[in-house]
């Protein structure tokens, strides 16, 4: 590993010239620096800069969240191989309609409603919370039509 160049204070009466100014500038890596690297990444991955594709949106649900959904669905509807297929289809349909963030917010509201108490009243009376739950219920209803 190369040691950085260190210059002492300039001697009186001597102009350090362009070498001193260039040596004091920090290098941000590589010949082209960070700017070229960012441009190269933007060119190489245009889908990341613009937004998610349908496949990326479908796959934004973590595996554990999908498994939890399927387990809950199967405990409600039966633990057969047929229900496994239908519940797996259902979570895929929900994932096409809602982003994982929206799904997580709606599930949080539903779990907070079960807790009860004064502090949780906002989850029962808030219009925003009601809209989140309504979107989840709509997605689940569409999934039921397609899969069951």
Describe the structure.
70% of the residues lie in helices and 0% in strands. It has 148 residues and is an all-alpha fold. It has 2 domains: 17-52, no CATH class; 56-147, no CATH class. Helix 7 crosses helix 9 (127-147). The longest helix is centred in the last third of the chain and has 21 residues, at 127-147. 12% of the residues are buried.
SSE arrangement:
Elements lengths: L16 H8 L8 H12 L1 H5 L3 H5 L4 H15 L3 H17 L2 H16 L5 H5 L1 H21 L1
Helix pairs in contact: 5-6, 6-9, 7-9
* Helicity, as a percent range: over 70%
Structural class: mainly alpha
Number of domains: 2
The rounded Rg comes to: 28 Å
Please give the largest β-sheet: none
Q: What share of the residues does DSSP label as strand, in percent?
A: under 5%
Mean pLDDT: 77
Query: In DSSP terms, counting alpha (H) and pi (I) runs of 4 or more, how many helices?
Result: 9
Per DSSP E runs of 2 or more residues, the count of β-strands stands at: 0
What overall form do the CA principal axes indicate? globular
Low-confidence stretches: 25-49
SSE string, helices as H and strands as E: HHHHHHHHH
> What separation lies between the terminal Cα atoms?
64 Å
């Amino acid at each position: 590993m190369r040691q950085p160049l260190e210059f002492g204070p300039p001697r009186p009466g001597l102009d350090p010239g362009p070498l001193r100014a260039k040596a004091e500038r920090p290098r941000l890596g590589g010949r082209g620096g960070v700017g070229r690297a960012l441009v190269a990444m933007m060119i190489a991955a245009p889908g990341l800069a613009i937004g998610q594709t349908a496949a990326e949106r479908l796959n934004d649900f973590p595996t554990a969240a999908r498994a939890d959904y399927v387990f809950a669905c199967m405990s409600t509807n039966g633990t057969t191989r047929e229900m496994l297929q239908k519940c797996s289809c259902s979570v895929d349909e929900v994932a096409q309609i809602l982003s994982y963030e929206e799904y997580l917010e709606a599930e949080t509201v539903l779990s907070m409603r079960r807790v009860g108490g004064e502090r949780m009243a906002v989850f029962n009376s808030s219009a925003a919370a009601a809209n989140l739950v309504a979107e989840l219920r709509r997605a689940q209803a569409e999934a039921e039509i397609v899969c069951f």
